[in-house]
Design a protein that fits this description.
With about 350 residues, the chain is an alpha+beta fold. The protein has helices at about 50-65, 75-90, 100, 125-135, 135-140, 190-195, 215-230, 255-260, 280-290, 315-325, 345-355; strands at about 10-15, 70, 110-115, 150-155, 160-170. A five-stranded mixed β-sheet has the order 1-3-5-4-2. Strand 4 (about 150-155) and strand 5 form a beta hairpin. The N and C termini lie far apart (about 55 Å).
Length: about 350
């Protein structure tokens, strides 16, 4: 039971250290309950704020002792974040009884630290870290030499901050998925891995990629800029802008201005770019064609078309035909291309992978 009197933090620790085959650990239930949806910020594939501080302090402590740093793992982080969210939502600190069933298979050992502090300011992370270090059970998890990976969760509830550390030991031969929502074997796993390793795309805080989320026009500009130039998106300088809805302070202003400078886009007739609007499949065809070729868009001649819903008179028929001719797309099994549909992040990773390799 949590006791708050005269405490800056309340903490619990648990560790399981047996190989799965020995069955000496308490077996996990056959099915875990639905996880609390994680709170995910729209940022790159890194921890931020208190969670990052918890992770940094953890590895700093291990370094003091000459221990190897723990690798931050996306799947472990999502488990930890889900559990922190649940604790914060109910204002109750407790261990997650389903850890072993929720983390990626192949583990040799796992451990969990959970903690609560009434602080919600910049001191919260250090308070919990120091409380864990002062507790033998928590400290043992933090400094276990055989642990290889960790996930960090942090959530703020009505009565304070809740943190979770999920530790695991995996053999060096076990490869873990980069994102909790893109398991190995997923259709677009290889394409997403390429996009991230190439610096073209990033994931989100919480260790997820959101593969089925629609790609916005501003995100498309950023993806293309990184794929073509190999650099991250620059900031815009000066006050003159091409599109009235993309001011200099816009996060992707530099990529959108580059898109216009290169003739890859002209925006809409009303002088807007509509950065938050989902990009359509036919627009992606045009953007990719113009990014990889010079001169005007190709036109379609004759009656033979690859897709039943992209006739020769379609405005972007030429780029769509080019997209198919290069093998960047095969369309849908029913013979359609669905030009007006939005593009999912996983499909965009595939388009870019095929286009730039």
């Amino acid at each position: 039971m949590r006791t708050r009197a005269a405490l800056v933090a309340a903490i619990l620790a648990v560790a399981v250290g047996a190989l799965p085959a020995t069955a000496t650990a308490t077996p996990a239930p056959s099915a875990a309950p639905a996880a609390v949806r994680p709170v995910i910020a729209t940022a790159g594939e890194v921890l931020t704020g208190p969670a990052q501080e918890v992770f940094t302090r953890l590895n700093a402590k291990r370094a003091e002792l000459g221990l190897p740093a723990l690798t931050l793992d996306a799947s472990l982080t999502q488990v930890a974040q889900n559990w922190s969210n649940g604790q914060a939502a109910t204002s109750t600190m407790a261990h997650n009884p389903y850890v072993s069933a929720q983390i990626p298979a192949g583990w040799r050992a796992w451990g969990e630290n959970v903690g609560w502090t009434s602080a919600t300011d910049s001191s919260a992370a250090s308070r919990l870290h120091n409380a864990w270090v002062a507790s033998p059970g928590h400290y043992a998890n933090m400094t276990k030499s055989t642990f290889t990976h960790v996930g960090i969760g942090w959530a703020v509830g009505p009565n304070g901050s809740y943190a979770t550390q999920v530790f695991a030991q995996y053999p060096s031969t076990v490869a873990l998925p980069r994102f909790a929502d893109v398991p190995m074997g997923a259709t677009f796993y290889g394409d997403i891995e390429w996009a991230v390793k190439s610096g073209v795309a990033t994931g989100y805080v919480g260790g997820v990629f959101r593969p089925s989320a629609a790609v916005t026009r501003e995100a498309m500009a950023a993806f293309l800029y990184r794929a073509v130039t190999g650099r991250d998106v620059p900031a815009c300088s000066g006050s003159a802008r091409t599109f009235r809805d993309v001011p200099s302070g816009h996060a992707f202003c530099g990529a959108i201005e580059w898109l216009a400078d290169q003739g890859i886009t002209t925006g809409f007739p009303d002088g807007t770019f509509r950065p938050g609007q989902a990009v359509t499949r036919e627009a992606v065809a045009a953007f990719l064609y113009r990014a990889m070729n010079s001169g005007p868009d190709p036109v379609c001649n004759g009656s033979g078309r690859r897709f039943t819903d992209v006739p020769a008179g379609e405005a972007l028929c030429g780029p769509v035909e080019w997209l198919a001719g290069t093998g960047i797309t095969t369309g849908w099994p029913d013979g359609s291309f669905r030009p007006g549909w939005s593009v999912e992040r996983q499909a965009m990773a595939a388009f870019l992978h095929r286009a730039f390799t």
